[in-house]
Specification:
about 450 residues, alpha/beta, 8-stranded parallel sheet, 6-stranded antiparallel sheet, 14 helices, 23 strands
Length: about 450
């Protein structure tokens, strides 16, 4: 069975709670999602990094911290933050509560094996029944550059896979549906990606595998990514800065042609709403992206069919943010749009005009997004043939509808130079106009 037939949609604790999220906060977001967002396709709740660290803090990581581990060296939820995990129950109860809401549970895991487990030389039973230790299966030369909790696994040692199989088997037994494995792509660890895929297959549970962080990720890695994972980041952490959003225009233009069911390039979380409550970056705040920049971000992600993971705290985010997330076109175009791609990108004044197109996979509708990255309002006159193609432009009369507010727009108008029509749009600063174009036969247009 192919997992993630459409791009996953959910919430992740990182942008608002960093390493410190609690069980109560996860459940508050899950309940809000079930009540307000689930009908629009949002269905996954992800507990991000360091849920096993009793010394977790805002604004960074605590190196040398004594993670909560079991007798195999597998991370366990810190019971001070996740009370239902006490007594070795892990995320079983949390998963059950999330599932009861009609949602899926995801967790973050770092590549490798905890350093404290390696130091303790805990027993590992290899595939041949021989007992080695966690020190034997570790690669102490392979370390994460930004988090000091783990060593890599030595995937040339047969017992390394056995240890990883046990870790993933435990996640599966808890009821985990989605796992975000970090420190996998920069540098690219093909051996670890393959090992994780194998362990998930052996677990007997359908678990979506998401890989991070994605810094300078090349499309040359596609064969490995498509064979073994369902999501892979194509950028470093993205925050509420226009320059972060702008940089993803080029990345998504590169990756969008390769999107397919079961394999999605991921442009990272949506730093929208209330973020920074106890996060790694910045303090408690509303997203610093302007309303137009927020629409640009969401429109670009949807047109490129990136997974959508909301980063802000849902219960305390403003109503305007929730309205953005539940705009009917967001989930509909993400799930049903196909052939999303950049049609045009040209410098103009102090910015660029960037035009994306896609078509509905279930009807004749075409989707067009016109972005303006410069200052002030820019009026764009776009030949219909440049948006839907010459044959379609001449075969049909087209009507236009704004996808953000659902209102009709003036139909493309014929000019002396463009007999098939021109679509005229005023595009705001750092903003977007997102349009659905609907065809009708020319003889039906009278």
């Amino acid at each position: 069975m192919t997992l993630a037939l459409t791009p996953p949609m959910g919430w992740n604790s990182w942008d608002c709670y960093g390493t410190t999220v609690t069980e109560a906060e996860v459940l508050a977001n899950a309940r809000f999602m079930a009540e307000h967002l689930l009908p629009h396709g949002w269905d996954t709740v992800v507990v991000d990094i360091d849920w096993s660290d009793p010394a977790a803090r805002a604004h960074g990581y605590t190196d040398g911290s004594g993670l909560v581990l079991d007798e195999h060296g597998y991370p366990q939820p810190d019971p001070a933050r996740f009370p239902s995990a006490a007594g070795g129950r892990g995320f079983t109860e949390l998963a059950a509560q999330v599932h009861a809401l009609g949602l899926k549970l995801g967790v973050h895991v770092l590549r490798g094996i905890p350093r404290t487990a390696v130091a303790a030389a805990l027993p590992v039973v290899g595939p041949d029944g021989a007992v080695v230790t966690t020190a034997d299966v570790a690669d102490t030369s392979s370390v994460c550059t930004w988090n000091g909790h783990m060593y890599g696994l030595d995937h040339t040692h047969p017992a390394a896979q056995a240890w990883l199989d046990g870790l993933v088997g435990q996640l599966a037994s808890w009821g985990v549906d989605f796992v975000k494995v970090d420190d996998m792509l920069a540098p690219f660890h093909a051996d670890a990606i393959t090992a994780w895929s194998r362990a998930i297959a052996r677990s007997g549970r359908d678990i979506v595998l998401s890989l991070s962080p994605g810094t300078r990720l090349s499309t040359a890695h596609l064969p490995v990514l498509r064979e073994h994972a369902q999501m892979w980041r194509v950028c470093d952490d993205l925050w509420d800065r226009w320059e972060d959003v702008h940089a993803n225009f080029a990345r998504l233009a590169r990756w969008a042609p390769f999107q397919q069911p079961g394999g999605w390039a991921d442009a990272d979380m949506l730093p929208l709403g209330r973020i920074g409550i106890r996060a790694e970056r910045g303090d408690d705040r509303a997203s610093r992206l302007t309303p137009d920049e927020q629409r640009t971000l969401l429109t670009l992600w949807v047109m490129a069919r990136s997974p959508l993971m909301m980063g802000g705290d849902l219960p305390t985010s403003d109503a305007a943010t929730i309205a953005l997330l539940t705009t009917p076109a967001v989930g509909h175009v993400l799930r049903t749009g196909v052939d999303g791609r950049e049609l045009q990108r040209e410098p103009a004044g102090d910015g660029e005009v960037v035009v994306w197109g896609a078509r509905s996979g279930t009807e004749a509708t075409r989707y067009v997004a016109v972005f303006w990255t410069g200052t002030g309002v820019r009026t764009e006159h776009l030949p219909l043939s440049a948006l839907v193609g010459d044959a379609a432009a001449s075969a049909h009369r087209w009507t236009a509808r704004d996808l953000w507010d659902g209102t009709p727009l003036p139909d493309p108008r014929a000019t002396a130079a463009e007999h098939d029509g021109v679509l005229t749009l005023d595009v705001p600063e750092h903003g977007v106009r997102w349009v659905a174009l609907e065809p009708a036969r020319r003889e039906d247009a009278a």
